[in-house]
Specification:
By secondary structure, this protein is mostly helical. It has a domain of about 110 residues: Helix Hairpins, CATH 1.10.287.110. Strands 1-2 form a two-stranded antiparallel ribbon. A hairpin with a 6-residue loop joins strand 1 and strand 2. Helix 9 packs parallel to helix 11. The longest helix is centred in the middle third of the chain and has 40 residues. The radius of gyration is 37 Å and the shape is elongated. It starts with a helix and ends with a helix.
Length: about 325
């Protein structure tokens, strides 16, 4: 069989297509025009694409060029040839036995291409074999995936931080299904995460619809977290744009740096209408707390008793920024 550009056109390809393109096109068309699918109306087309595919395959086996006198292009070079394939490839020998017949009774070596009926039969056998192979591979992948998930869930029942970290590393951000996320949440309801585990679990839940459930679980451990771990948790909450209900527990933490960080993450569009739940923080003298606090309180309606404290901050605090913010609140809300 001698391949030409017509073989590419039969498969719906341009003459510069590579061998991978040919294989994909043949498989797609074979499924479309297979007699089991298209019936008798597809027989002629199925024979035609099979002949074109075999012609191109023979050209790859022989290492011939796409066009007469041209060199083989990238992706179309023949594969390394062994002693067996130097004279004739194994693939070619196989197809020769299937598609050709030899008349040796009269001492001749005449080869005639077999009938379309045999082509259809062979194509049917190969198509069914391919379909069964894909089914087996699919079931194997499904089985392995299920096995990996079960192993991960089993590890999440451990109390050893290293085992938990190993389980979390096996969970992709995009494959944390309901079963996995539930197992993670159940684990951390009973166990406090270490720093490395905390960072990893927050990564896993970054796109999860259940990240608020995880956030509530982590807030339950807040008093026992180190300052570094609290800052890890708080930075994720701010990145996730959590509502103030999730930020308020940080305001009672012992570290001024944590309180200041929580206030700096307060949503700008949040309007409670009454800032009395934050006014207790006015007792602080720390500039890092007062500046973000006053920014939040400026958007709130404050009780009149806060006027005295604000006036004191406005007149006596050593930080110019604190004095400016306090003055603005007193002026805007008439808290004299």
């Amino acid at each position: 069989m001698i391949a030409n550009d017509a073989d590419f056109r039969v498969l719906g390809l341009s003459s510069d297509a590579n061998w991978d393109d040919v294989k994909r096109a043949f498989r797609r068309l074979a499924r479309l025009y297979h007699p089991d699918v298209a019936g008798q109306s597809g027989e002629h087309k199925f024979v035609e694409i099979t002949e074109a595919y075999m012609s191109l395959k023979e050209r790859v086996s022989s290492g011939s060029a796409r066009t007469a006198g041209a060199r083989a292009a990238d992706g179309w070079r023949s594969e390394p040839r062994t002693e067996v394939t130097r004279n004739e490839s194994i693939f070619k020998k196989f197809w020769r036995k299937l598609f050709y017949r030899e008349d040796r009774k009269e001492g001749t070596h005449e080869e005639d291409f077999i009938s379309p009926a045999r082509v259809r039969f062979i194509g049917s056998v190969l198509s069914r074999a391919e379909s069964e192979m894909f089914t087996v591979i699919s079931k194997k992948d499904e089985f392995m995936s299920r096995g990996r998930m079960d192993a991960t869930i089993l590890r999440l029942r451990s109390r050893h931080p290293a085992v938990i970290l190993l389980a979390l590393k096996q969970i992709s951000v995009y494959c944390a299904n309901d079963e996995i996320t539930e197992a993670v949440i159940e684990h951390f309801k009973k166990n406090i995460p270490v720093s490395e585990t905390l960072e990893r679990v927050m990564d896993v839940f970054s796109n999860s619809p259940r990240r608020e459930d995880l956030a509530k679980v982590m807030l339950g451990h807040l008093p026992r977290f180190s300052e570094a771990d609290v800052m890890i948790l708080l930075s994720r909450f701010k990145r996730w744009k959590m509502q103030p209900e999730f930020l308020r527990p940080f305001l009672s933490y012992k570290s001024p740096a944590v309180i200041a960080c929580a206030l700096s993450g307060w949503p700008m569009d949040y309007r409670r209408g009454n800032g009395s739940d934050l006014t207790s923080l006015l007792k602080h003298e720390d500039e890092s707390i007062l500046i973000p606090l006053l920014r939040v309180l400026k958007r709130e309606k404050l009780p009149s008793w806060t006027g005295m404290r604000l006036e004191k901050l406005m007149k006596e605090h050593p930080s110019p920024a604190v004095r400016v913010w306090a003055s603005a609140i007193v002026r805007d809300q008439n808290l004299s």
